[in-house]
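Fig. S4 source data, part A: sequence.
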Amino acid sequence: MLRILIVDDYEIVRHGVRALAGANPNWEVCGEAHSGTSAYALAMRTKPDLVILDLSMPGLGGISLARLLHEDLPETMLLAFTMRDDADTVKAELAAGVKDYVLKSEGEKQLAAAI
């Protein structure tokens, strides 16, 4: 069972990702967080296999969160789910430990494939 933590400051995005994950019997959402700070605490408690994270969040942003999670939970895979696709952002997220990213403008098939 793949345990997934969903991190996005928009509830509707978290709801959509949860619905996608719920359609796969091999995936389980172990938590949701609306900020980087709450996501970090939840990840340390739940030790997810995969964190799907937004890069643009108030407070502790996604790249900083990815860096912390990559250091403290190196076995956890990180997937950025974002609107940002400029070269500098992609370089920063990969340097922070993100393994892949999916643009929010893409469909659910692309997100499911990345998961």
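Fig. S4 source data, part B ends here. The mean pLDDT is 95.
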